[in-house]
Structures are given as C-alpha cells and as structure tokens.
Amino acid sequence: MPAGIHSPSRPNTSQLVPFWRARLAERGLSPATIEHFAITPRGDGWQYPVHPALDATRWKAFDSTATPKYLWLPHKPDAVRFYNVDGTLRDAVALVGGILWLASGEPDVWALWEGGVRNTTCLFDGETRRMPPWFAPELTRLGVRVLHLAPDRDRAGMRFVIQVSRAVSHTPIRVITHHLPFPPRSKGDVGRLLVNVGAARLRTTLEGLPAYEAVFEPIPPDERPTVVQRPLPHLFPNRDDLYEAWCVEVVEPAAVRAWGISPPDARGFSKNFRCPFHDDRHPSAGWSYETHGIHCFACGYHDAREVAEQLGLPSWESYRAGQGAE
C-alpha cells in the first residue's frame, strides 16, 4: 500500500463499503455520479481515474484535514492536464458554446456534475499559486470562450481568481466569477452549496448568485496584482437592475458614511481604507464603485450582501421582497 495511505480500522469489508459510500452521500453525491467518476474505496480514502488515456489514478483522503490529502498512484504522469475522466471534456464545452466551469478540485467537479453541470473540470493542484504554462493554450484547444469560477470563500479562492485572470489576460477568454453565499474565510465551496440546496437547485442557485467579469489589469511590479470585477447584468436580466438599485441606493451610501470611503478614481476605486472584515492595522481595502463591494488585499473580496450584513442594513432578499419581485 502506498505511503501515506493507512488501512482503516474497521472490522471487515462489509462495513467498509457502506462507510465509503456514506461519506460520498454526505457530500450529496448519488450512486450515478459515483459510478460515472469510477470512485472506489482504498484505505482511508477514495481512488479514481483522471483520464481514459492515463494509467495513473488519484487518491483523496476521507478526512479533508488529513496529511496527505491527495496522492497520485503510482505517480503523477507527465502528460496530465485537466481532470477529464471520460475524455469528453472538449465535446461538453462545444455543446454549450464554449463555456467551461473551472472547479477548485475534483470533489467540486463531482458536485457540479451531480447538479447537472457537465462542462466542468479542474486542475490537479487545486487553487494553485502558479498556473502551468500550458493552461491558456489548452483552454484554447478545448474551444473555451467563457470560463466560470466559483472559488472557495478563503484567501486561496481570491488568489485563484487573480492567477486565472492573469493567465488568460492575453487571450479572448472571458473570466466570470460567482460569489458563493458563504461568509469570508469560511472555506465555503461548491460542495457545501450542493449539500445546502440539493442537486435539483444547484445550477439555478449558481446562476442566481452575483456574478462579475474578472479582468486582470497589469500594474507596476512593485504593487500588488489586482483584478477588476465588472458587473454582468446581462447574465440575469430579471433581477440585476433591481440588485444594482439595492447596491447603489441602500448599501453603498451606508458604507461610504460608515467607513469614510473616498470618491472613485478613474478606475472606479476608492482610496485604501482599513478593512472592516479583519483586524486591519494598515489600510488594505478599497471600495469598488463598479461591483459595490470591498476588495481587500488581506482577506479577499466582500460583496454587497456581506457589507449589508456587517452594517446591519436590509438584506438583498428583504429589499427584493419589498419591491414586489419574486
């Protein structure tokens, strides 16, 4: 048995099989999804293939805090690119006009698949700090025109948006970021969203989240990299005019008053101020008058929903209900 994979302390195989399936069921995964990804038990984790042309498989620990959390069996192949268990990723992208969901890891791919999103994949280094040189060319080869991200709610998730946006900044590929409805630094992810809303509602829930086009803007090397996120009202024509009104009429004025936010510069950003979402001793946050939220270099992005909650303002849901919207 490979190093790092320990034999589970369960009495016999008859108990092992329901145990590993039960752990996947806790994640909201059905037997059909388990079968599609060919997930099987091995020691204290799951083993699964990654591509029909590769003999190597991946192993993930049941416990997400375990070390190691992932392993390659027997070792990482040189030719590995994206997670593509049945080799049909290019066809799935073409079927929806060049749209690809880039997940944070294999479990999020499983969750998206369970929710009916078939045009999805991930890298094998999770929310990597450095994008591989083949990333943008491979997306182009797959026919990707629009890349959707729903990053984990932590620093790594925000950093991932920056890295992806930078990697495709020289291409026509658009990057659209969806902000998951979890508190900052909570590590909330697509898998948790699946558990919360169920497979039948996962896709529509994702489509209903505030979404922004992430555009990487080069800046001097002595400054921090940044991503400007532009609202995309055309994605949700039935609700975004109202959402924009709530941001502009309710949230933004209150935030400006409460935190002494300056007027926008030419890029639509305020001067830096101390972030109210962490113990910020040096001003590290800026207010975006385009996205109506806080971009903090220390703890990530905080959208209007989080700002409203922080300030005790009427929520988006209550405002929408008060306007007679469904």
Portion of residues in beta strands equals 15-25%
- The CATH architecture of the largest domain can be named as 3-Layer(aba) Sandwich
C-alpha-based Rg, rounded: 21 Å
Ranges with pLDDT <50 over ≥5 residues? Answer: 6-17, 233-239
Largest sheet: 6 strands, mixed
Q: What's the rounded overall pLDDT mean?
A: 83
Number of contiguous helices? 11
* Number of separate domains: 3
Number of DSSP strand runs: 13
How far the N terminus sits from the C terminus, by CA atoms, comes to 55 Å
The assigned structural class equals: alpha+beta
Query: In the CATH scheme, what's the topology name of the largest domain?
Result: Dna Topoisomerase Vi A Subunit, Chain: A, domain 2
Q: Please trace the helix and strand order, writing H or E for each element.
A: HHEEEEHEHEHEHEHHEEHEEEHH
Class of the largest domain, according to the CATH hierarchy? Alpha Beta
Percent helix range: 25-40%
What spatial order of strands do you see in the largest sheet? 6-5-7-8-9-10
Outline, from the CA principal axes? globular
Notes on the protein architecture:
The chain has a 6-stranded mixed sheet with strand order 6-5-7-8-9-10. It has a 4-stranded antiparallel sheet with strand order 1-2-3-4. Strands 11-12-13 form a 3-stranded antiparallel sheet. The protein is an alpha+beta fold and 326 residues long. A hairpin with a 3-residue loop joins strand 12 and strand 13. The chain is globular. It has 3 domains: 61 residues, no CATH class; 128 residues, Dna Topoisomerase Vi A Subunit, Chain: A, domain 2; 86 residues, DNA Primase, Chain A (Alpha-Beta Complex). The termini are far apart.
